[in-house]
Amino acid sequence: MDAPSLKNLTDFKYSVPAKEQSFILQQLGAPHVSSFNYMVNKGLNDAVSSLHPVEFTLPSGERLSLRIEDVSLNYPAVPLGVVGVRTQQIFPTECRQRNATYCGKLNGKVSWSINNGPRSYIDQDFGNIPIMIKSNRCNLNEMTPKQLVTHKEHEQEWGGYFIIRGHEKLIRMLLMTRRNYPIAIKRGGWKGRGDLFSDVGIQIRCVNDSQTCVPNTLHFVTDGTVKFMFAHLKLVYYVPVMMILKATCDYTDQYIYKRLTEGFEDDSYYSDCIQNMMRNLHAEGLHSHADCKGYLGKMFRVKFTECAEWFTDVEITDYVLKSCVLIHLNSPEDKFNLLVFMIQKLFVYAQDNCKTEGADAVMMQELLLGGHLYLQVLKERLQMWLIYLRASILKNAKSGAGFACGEKDMARALKYTGGVETVMQKFLATGNINSPSGLGLMQDSGLAIIAENINRMRYMSHFRAVHRGAFFQEMRTTEARQLLPDAWGFICPVHTPDGAPCGLLNHLTMNCIVTTNPDEEIVATIPATLTELGMVPFKGSHAGLCIKECYVTQLDGRVIGYVHRSIADKLVTKLRCLKIKGEEVPNTLEIVLVPMKDTPGQYPGLFLFSGPARMMRPVYNLVFKEIEFIGTFEQVYLNVCVTPKEMYKGVTTHMEVDKNSFLSNLALLIPMPDCNQSPRNMYQCQMGKQTMGTPCLNWASQGSSKLYRIQTPGSPLFRPVHYDKVGLDEFPMGTNAIVAVVSYTGYDMEDAMIINKSSYERGFCHGSVYKSEFIELDDQNSYFCRDPSAPDLAEALEPDGFPHIGKPVSAGDPLYCYYSVDESKYIVKRFKEKETYYVSSVRKCSSFVARAKPAVLITFRITRNPTVGDKFASRAGQKGICSQKWPYEDLPFTETGLVPDIVFNPHGFPSRMTIAMMIELMAGKSAALHGLVHDASPFKFDEDNTAIDYFGRLLEAGGYNYFGTETMYSGIDGREMTVQIFFGIVHYQRLRHMVSDKWQVRSTGATDILTRQPVGGRKRGGGVRFGEMERDSLISHGTSFLLQDRLLHCSDRTTALICTSCGTLLGPMHMVTQVADKPNMSETKEMCRLCGHGESITEIQIPYIFKYFVTQLASVNINIKIHCTQT
């Protein structure tokens, strides 16, 4: 599609679903869906097989071992025994309307053995866990657009989210450190981890096949030693790295020293440090492989309580090495080889012979996908479930019934163990996790969000959003927020919010893909393929090979061989050719050759990555004339040009597929963003997501709590090609408005705009808000019904007790009626909202429970005509409010009799420099004249072929002024204006920020118990916000005394006693004394406890919050002295 057109609107098959779904739109949910599919197909069984068996001793002395096996996830289906259903399948639309969770049953087998004897098995239902929409366990999977519409879904439904209690929930994609690659990092906080610790280290985030993550760090200690850090159950441990090396493999000290110093024979400092670490180990009495394993097992036995009490020290060490040390490698030899590499890199880095890599660069990052996080949470809960089962068995065994280890006894124990259903649903409902291990994350909240469907742009952006993490939002440094050059083509430079999340919440570019798990058989052949290309495979001995002149070759964090620097470039070129073909190596393989340099640079090596969750994008390979996918780390060492003009022969290796490929989906919808000031493009990305639009087409089957809808949308006449590619005409979001750029009324200052009152009356930007309320009765025996003894209810309610469809309801009107069995009477619930609503639909909701509580879903429609104070914006980031609806007859008009819909203040252009809006004004005008749709894609025009000249000539051809200006006449007296007025068509957006939702007024009301100040919140009848700007406005108006009314009299005024002598609020108190000559009488006097004076005490009015503040300071022994003067 090379140019936009109106064929989508003029085609007679416009309403007929397409035969196939759009590839571009399906890519929005692809990373989420593919990760969940991996979990179902392979990850779940990998996770279950890697669970540590729970082993313990029964009171009878027998050793019992528990495992979980053969776990499978089923499609969402009606429970067995439910009658009266048409199909056993459950579809998402039902769950949205019933406030239910779209989930499938998780089944498996629990196996146990006694004293390592034969295993027994019993089937177990672990409960219903949420299913991702459009995954291979969803009933919508592989449906055609026509079938999706039949099941009340959108024809372009891309899935990737969950439905939890009727709400669409999405697991947020988080930016994580690249897996299985040792990164050189410098952090000042590391110095506080122990004596002599330095700020340099090598960090690696290890991820195994079941997506379990365990970070490891090599710390350089300033005495020349190295500590190996790993974490277990959120506790951090530091072990001398030489002890880990010797415990990993049974190698001699001579061999270990030789391996560590290979290629570094000339570095005497490094050699001395290695010898010193070895001597330290012998000084501790640890001379052999067995000594080190025995010592580690003895030390960690207390901490690793999941190991059975009969485990030997060696077995505990094996468990520690397997579960906490470089867990992505299964072979001890591979762990040893990678540790050697990390130690060598650490000493090179500590001596400033290589540069810091850091974890904030995109080249060192990948994504944590929803399916992978879901799998980690599920795996951990299954491990906890086994522990709960052990507790249940021990409880039964210690009771009088005993435990005979038979099937009946196991079934009885399983009955009280529960499942994982509640935990998984709570995780997605709240986004919080309660993990004993932390799952390698830096946050335990905000992991799942609601996929808000305010409009199509907002909904699309959720699925391409990547967040750096909540931890970085609290940091004062800006390193994590910076847009670095290596993010080109992967992270959109435009689409990030302003404010607190700026730079932390980013969005993937349109062409960026997220890799999936490759074919394991192909990955397994990569080492053999490299050997054929010239790599020397690693076999422990390299006689005759000069390691110093070779690159260490790694595949997914495993050392597989060496490549001599003389053939490295040729080998990489040949490997890249095989990658493009995708036969012998995956086409998503990331090939990174970090070259050796005379000056310190990144630590050299040949690194290959084939794992999932990496960001890659397509570029054109100039050598092989084919499309190739490159990764973030790979791109840094390639030479990529944008256009053929930038190509340098023999230097440039790749070229961009599209010059707009560095922008995200939303940034590509901005008309001509290259002509705007950059912040305005950022604003439009945010305001586009706040626009009242058409969020959905299945209005009758929607159950969302709140939806915005614009009733009179229009298709923009000036739009990018991407607008048609994503089919935005089906979900329109704005209105074409005739705009006059003139300061005419005085009400259009400071971004305010004037709306033609007649345009407003004809439906300009008329919108509606749809709210749905789910009502469930408390008792299952109660039922909805209109009270037959109240004939006056017939006007408001149907016989079934529900309101009439289309009827307006106001505060105090009957909303529904039901018969309460507990109270034995009819109860009428009345409408409480202050605004008038219209009943749009009433839907009774059922449940699969035999005796379910009656429930109903009522959807209301609230009309929202534009009012003074409502917010509007153009697509160039020019936002403003409607300040006045001006009469049609008083507005200026052109020679042809046209009257503008909007009057825009010309002072909005110079400082904002939104040239794209000025071009749109001319382009929209010429498009309407000639019946065209103009292309607003970025970089379409340049200095030689300007947009203004192109559209100016079109205006001239239509008989209008070249510059888009027109002669206008005053609507007041008809005189011709002495200046030419810029006049044309602009596509305007009405934002969801409306006065009707935010207006607030209060004189008295609820106050906070502690501070005695008005509570906040419009729904609670709270106080109006009064800040610095409001204070300044009252002072500037000469009404500063009103501040006392707002901030004292109408807030938290209170009286207090103060001692003017010592200036304290804490000392004065009422002293009750007996009258001397009258024993039966007493008198009360004020007395200051601090200075002893009574005559200097007086009563003052102060805010109660100040009194509270003084008492809080007094609690930490701080007194406040107030200087008082008599007036």
TrEMBL record:
<dbReference type="InterPro" id="IPR007120">
    <property type="entry name" value="DNA-dir_RNAP_su2_dom"/>
</dbReference>
<protein>
    <recommendedName>
        <fullName>DNA-directed RNA polymerase subunit beta</fullName>
        <ecNumber>2.7.7.6</ecNumber>
    </recommendedName>
</protein>
<keyword id="KW-0240">DNA-directed RNA polymerase</keyword>
<comment type="function">
    <text>DNA-dependent RNA polymerase catalyzes the transcription of DNA into RNA using the four ribonucleoside triphosphates as substrates. Second largest core component of RNA polymerase I which synthesizes ribosomal RNA precursors. Proposed to contribute to the polymerase catalytic activity and forms the polymerase active center together with the largest subunit. Pol I is composed of mobile elements and RPA2 is part of the core element with the central large cleft and probably a clamp element that moves to open and close the cleft.</text>
</comment>
<feature type="domain" description="RNA polymerase Rpb2">
    <location>
        <begin position="1022"/>
        <end position="1123"/>
    </location>
</feature>
<keyword id="KW-0804">Transcription</keyword>
<dbReference type="Pfam" id="PF06883">
    <property type="entry name" value="RNA_pol_Rpa2_4"/>
</dbReference>
<feature type="domain" description="DNA-directed RNA polymerase I subunit RPA2">
    <location>
        <begin position="560"/>
        <end position="617"/>
    </location>
</feature>
<keyword id="KW-0863">Zinc-finger</keyword>
<dbReference type="Pfam" id="PF04560">
    <property type="entry name" value="RNA_pol_Rpb2_7"/>
</dbReference>
<keyword id="KW-0479">Metal-binding</keyword>
<dbReference type="GO" id="GO:0006351">
    <property type="term" value="P:DNA-templated transcription"/>
</dbReference>
<dbReference type="GO" id="GO:0008270">
    <property type="term" value="F:zinc ion binding"/>
</dbReference>
<dbReference type="Pfam" id="PF00562">
    <property type="entry name" value="RNA_pol_Rpb2_6"/>
</dbReference>
<keyword id="KW-0808">Transferase</keyword>
<dbReference type="InterPro" id="IPR007641">
    <property type="entry name" value="RNA_pol_Rpb2_7"/>
</dbReference>
<dbReference type="GO" id="GO:0032549">
    <property type="term" value="F:ribonucleoside binding"/>
</dbReference>
<keyword id="KW-0539">Nucleus</keyword>
<feature type="domain" description="RNA polymerase Rpb2">
    <location>
        <begin position="450"/>
        <end position="514"/>
    </location>
</feature>
<dbReference type="Pfam" id="PF04563">
    <property type="entry name" value="RNA_pol_Rpb2_1"/>
</dbReference>
<dbReference type="InterPro" id="IPR015712">
    <property type="entry name" value="DNA-dir_RNA_pol_su2"/>
</dbReference>
<feature type="domain" description="RNA polymerase Rpb2">
    <location>
        <begin position="193"/>
        <end position="367"/>
    </location>
</feature>
<dbReference type="Pfam" id="PF04565">
    <property type="entry name" value="RNA_pol_Rpb2_3"/>
</dbReference>
<dbReference type="InterPro" id="IPR007642">
    <property type="entry name" value="RNA_pol_Rpb2_2"/>
</dbReference>
<dbReference type="GO" id="GO:0005730">
    <property type="term" value="C:nucleolus"/>
</dbReference>
<keyword id="KW-0862">Zinc</keyword>
<comment type="similarity">
    <text>Belongs to the RNA polymerase beta chain family.</text>
</comment>
<keyword id="KW-0548">Nucleotidyltransferase</keyword>
<dbReference type="GO" id="GO:0003899">
    <property type="term" value="F:DNA-directed RNA polymerase activity"/>
</dbReference>
<dbReference type="Pfam" id="PF04561">
    <property type="entry name" value="RNA_pol_Rpb2_2"/>
</dbReference>
<dbReference type="InterPro" id="IPR037034">
    <property type="entry name" value="RNA_pol_Rpb2_2_sf"/>
</dbReference>
<dbReference type="GO" id="GO:0000428">
    <property type="term" value="C:DNA-directed RNA polymerase complex"/>
</dbReference>
<dbReference type="InterPro" id="IPR037033">
    <property type="entry name" value="DNA-dir_RNAP_su2_hyb_sf"/>
</dbReference>
<dbReference type="InterPro" id="IPR007644">
    <property type="entry name" value="RNA_pol_bsu_protrusion"/>
</dbReference>
<dbReference type="GO" id="GO:0003677">
    <property type="term" value="F:DNA binding"/>
</dbReference>
<dbReference type="InterPro" id="IPR007645">
    <property type="entry name" value="RNA_pol_Rpb2_3"/>
</dbReference>
<comment type="subunit">
    <text>Component of the RNA polymerase I (Pol I) complex consisting of at least 13 subunits.</text>
</comment>
<dbReference type="InterPro" id="IPR007121">
    <property type="entry name" value="RNA_pol_bsu_CS"/>
</dbReference>
<feature type="domain" description="DNA-directed RNA polymerase subunit 2 hybrid-binding">
    <location>
        <begin position="667"/>
        <end position="1020"/>
    </location>
</feature>
<feature type="domain" description="RNA polymerase beta subunit protrusion">
    <location>
        <begin position="28"/>
        <end position="401"/>
    </location>
</feature>
<dbReference type="InterPro" id="IPR009674">
    <property type="entry name" value="Rpa2_dom_4"/>
</dbReference>
<dbReference type="InterPro" id="IPR014724">
    <property type="entry name" value="RNA_pol_RPB2_OB-fold"/>
</dbReference>
